[in-house]
Design goal:
Strand content: 15-25%
Shape: globular
CATH topology of the largest domain: Rossmann fold
Low-confidence stretches: none
Number of helices: 11
Mean pLDDT: 96
Strand order of the largest sheet: 3-2-1-4-5-6-7
């Protein structure tokens, strides 16, 4: 099967293109947001093939995987065919609703010719998709391996664009946590954070190197207030890191009690950070539980099997 899919979310796309199909990934000369092409900081297999927009009209496409509202028009213009009507299409919803929660209408609501694929049950619960069929396919992770050493008594955090996204990513909480424990913040745009005592930043490292660096930290902190389920959290669990996380959106489903501490009480999270930093064996024990839980629920094999079943259903 030949699947058209834009490179939008690096970690999710990395898992998606590991399936058994050919994945057509638009690429433009400027490698802008609508034509990033193959990932350059994530390892992608050969079945992910770059394709220029001007040749898509002549390409065989069996399924269109949409991830942003404007891709519907973009696909129709580039393909000369209407997704959902002239060829099968699904829309992957990565994000939580941001407007009048919980009454937010999905941009693909009342489109029975499409299927909205939610990455969490939380998303499916909160988005109003009207008559559009919906399913949940939870995340899957390319397992980086049990790399945890916890040798550095520091806290690892991954936050992309923390200044622009602000309270969504819990950026306002970082100085408070940094007063409790030394904090190392990884991700795109972290160099824009104002300098804070006890906090260091590491800008946009290649995925493999970031995983190696994270795994040296004693504990992983997930301060995100409002996102479906951060893939960096699941990656940290796969690495074997103990987790301290805000109990928001899907985090309570992903992190079992034995894998760390999940709470809406910031004071409780601060206590947990101090406890893991002070007790390497406690951290190691919780990290093993985190890895086991993540491998059970968020394995790449399960993710790809779920997607394979759906693609067969929607393509008939």
């Amino acid at each position: 099967m030949r699947i058209l899919h834009w490179h939008v979310h690096g970690s999710w796309s990395t898992a998606f293109v590991h399936g058994p199909h050919t994945y057509l990934v638009p690429v433009t000369p400027d490698r802008g947001a609508d034509g990033l092409g193959r990932a350059r900081t994530f390892p992608w297999p050969q079945q992910a093939v770059e394709v220029a927009p001007e040749v898509l009209a002549d390409e065989q496409v069996d399924l269109v995987v949409l991830q942003r509202p404007h891709e519907l028009e973009l696909a129709e213009r580039w393909l000369g065919r209407r997704p959902g009507r002239d060829l099968p299409a699904v829309y992957v919803e990565h994000n939580t609703p941001r407007a009048d929660v919980p009454n937010t209408r999905h941009p693909m609501a009342d489109r029975p010719d499409l299927t909205v694929v939610h990455v969490t049950a939380f998303n499916q619960l909160f988005w109003d998709c009207g008559r559009t069929p919906t399913v949940v396919i939870e995340h899957g992770i390319v397992d980086p391996g049990e790399c945890y050493t916890g040798e550095l008594p520091r806290v690892g955090v991954v936050v992309n664009e923390p200044v622009r996204r602000g309270r969504v990513t819990g950026t306002d909480l970082l100085p408070r946590f940094a007063r409790q424990a030394p904090l190392d913040v990884f991700g795109m745009g972290v160099e824009q954070l104002p300098p804070q005592p006890g906090m260091a930043t590491f800008e946009d490292l290649p995925q493999r190197r970031m995983h190696a660096e994270l795994a040296r930290r004693r504990v992983y902190l997930h301060p995100i207030r409002w996102t479906s389920l951060g893939l960096s959290l699941l990656e940290a669990m796969h690495l074997g890191m103990p987790v301290v996380a805000l109990a928001t959106t899907e985090a309570t489903e992903a992190v079992p009690p034995e894998a760390g501490v999940v709470s809406t009480r910031v004071e409780r999270l601060e206590e947990a950070l101090r406890a893991f930093l002070a007790d390497p064996e406690l951290a190691r024990h919780a990290g093993r539980a985190a890895r086991a839980a993540a491998r059970r629920r968020y394995s790449l094999d399960r993710f790809l099997a779920d997607w394979d079943r759906l693609t067969k259903e929607v393509t008939g």
